[in-house]
# Entry
Amino acid sequence: MTEASQPPRRSVVCLLLLGVFMGNDVADAQQAAMLVLEAPASTEAMAYGNTPYLYSRESGMMFYAPALLPRSRGVTAALQRYGSAGTMATLSGAGPWHDGGLAIGLQYLRYGAPTGLPVGRDSQSVTLTTDAVGVTEFVGSIGYGREILGLRTGIVVKYLEQTLNQHGDRTVAVDLGVAAEVGPVLFGLTGRNLGPDLDVVDDPCPGCAIGAPVTRRALELPILVAGTVSSDEFQLGPLDLFFTAQVLRRRDGAFIPSGGAELSYWPVTGYTFRVRGGLERVVDDQRSAFTFGAAFTGDNITLEYAFQGFSGVGNAHRFGFRWQ
# Structure
C-alpha cells in the first residue's frame, strides 16, 4: 500500500465520528440512563474538570480515549463518595497485547433517586440525596487499541445494567476512538456509549401488591462525542506543567467545554508531588464548575484525590490508587 493511499482510509473513522458529532439534536429528549457513564471515571480526569489527559498512561484511559490503550499500563482503582448517600467505585487494568493494548474495566454506582426517576442529563447531584428508589448502575468493559495505517485507533465494548429496586434492564454499547500526535500536542476524537437504549420501570411502587400495574419508560444512553487536546509536559523553572482541554457534545445537542492543568514537583528522582485544577461547563446540575485535586507518586505507585462541590447538597470526594 502506498503512502498516498493511506490518508483517505485514515479519515474514514474520523468522518464517522464527526458525523455523530454533527448529527441531529434531540431537542425534546427523553430522560437519560446510566449516570455512571457521564460521571468521572478517573480520579485524575475528575480533577481536570472530568477531562482526560491524553498523555496519561493510567488504565482508566479506557473510559475516555480507547485509541490510547497501547500506552496504558498497570491497575487503577478508585472510590468516590457523594456526601453520605451515593457511592461510586471504578477498577481497571491494562497491558500490551497483540501489537496493541488490552484493558478491562468495571464501574459501579449506587444512589437513591426520587420516585419517577430524576429528570435531566448528567444530574449527578441526585446521588447526594437519600430518596425512596434505590438505583444501581453497573458497567463491565473490555477494550483494545492499536495503530492502523499510521493512526491510533481503539474500541471498547461495554455491558450496561441499570436496576431500580428490583426492576431494571441491560444493554450493550461501544466506544470508538482515534488519536494523533502533532509535535508536543496529542489530539483525540472519541464517540462514547453508542448502543440501544434501556427500558426500565418508572414507578416500581415497592409497597404495592404483587401484580399491581407499573409504568415502563425508555431511557436514552448518554451518547457523547469528545474532541480532546493535551500538551506534553514542559518545564516551568523547577516545576513541570501541562494542560488538557476538551469539547464534548451530548446527545441532546449541548456542548460541554472543559479543561485543566497539573503542576508537579519532584525533589528526588522517583518521588513527585502534583497539584491539579479544572473547570467544566455545567448545564443541568447543581455541581460546581470548578474541580481540584492532588497526587503523590512514589516509584510505580500513585495515590491521588479529587474534589467537586455541589451547591446546597454536599460534596463529592474521590480517592484513587494507581500501580504502573
